[in-house]
Amino acid sequence: MSAKWSRIFPGQAWQVAQARHYVAGLLEGEHPGLINDAVLVVGELAANAVRHTRSGWYRGWFLVVVGFNDDLIRIQVIDQGGETEPRLREHVSAVEEGGRGLSMVAASAKDWGVKNLGKGECSVWADLHRVPAG
C-alpha cells in the first residue's frame, strides 16, 4: 500500500529547517539512516528552491511531498521554477561555498531526477531505500 503526504512552505530560507522537521516527523519509527538521508535530501532540495528559483521571491512557496511504498520513500520538492534546470555540477573548487547539494542528494538516493511540471513549476525528487528499523 502506498501513501503520500504533502505540505506547502513559504519560500523563505528559515522554512528549510521547517521542511526538515516535517519530513523527520513523517519518518518517525523508520531506520535512523533513512531519516538522516531524507532530512539531508529535503534540506538540499528546499534550499535550492528558495535560493535558485522564483520560490524565494516575494510571496513564493515550495511544496514538499513524501511518498511511501513498501521498499522506497520518495522525497519531492516542487518549486516555482527558475532560469535554469537543476543539474549536478561536475567541477566545484575547494573554495566555493556552494555547488555540492545535488551531489549529496545523488549519493544518498537510489535515484533522483528533475521534472518540468509546466506553468513554470519544477519537481526535483529523490528515491530512498526503505529498510527495516532495528
Overview of the structural elements:
Mean pLDDT is 86; it is low at 92-96. This protein has three helices and five strands, in the order E-H-H-E-E-H-E-E. By secondary structure, it is of the alpha+beta class. Strands 1-2-3-5-4 form a five-stranded antiparallel β-sheet, with helices on one face. A hairpin with a 3-residue loop joins strand 2 (61-68) and strand 3. It is 31% helix and 31% strand. Helix 1 packs antiparallel against helix 2 (32-52).
Order of helices and strands: EHHEEHEE
The share of residues in helices is 25-40%
How many beta strands in the DSSP annotation?
5
SS content category? alpha+beta
β-strand amount = 25-35%
Rounded to an integer in angstroms, the radius of gyration calculated over CA atoms is: 14 Å
List unreliable stretches of 5+ residues: 92-96
Separate helix tally: 3
Oligomer: single chain
**Major sheet description:** 5 strands, antiparallel
What is the rounded distance between the termini?
22 Å
Main-sheet strand order equals 1-2-3-5-4
Q: Mean pLDDT across all residues, rounded?
A: 86
Principal-axes geometry comes out as globular
SSE topology sketch:
Blueprint: E1 3-10, H1 15-26, H2 32-52, E2 61-68, E3 72-79, H3 101-108, E4 111-118, E5 121-129
Antiparallel strand pairs: 1-2, 2-3, 3-5, 4-5
Helix pairs in contact: 1-2, 2-3
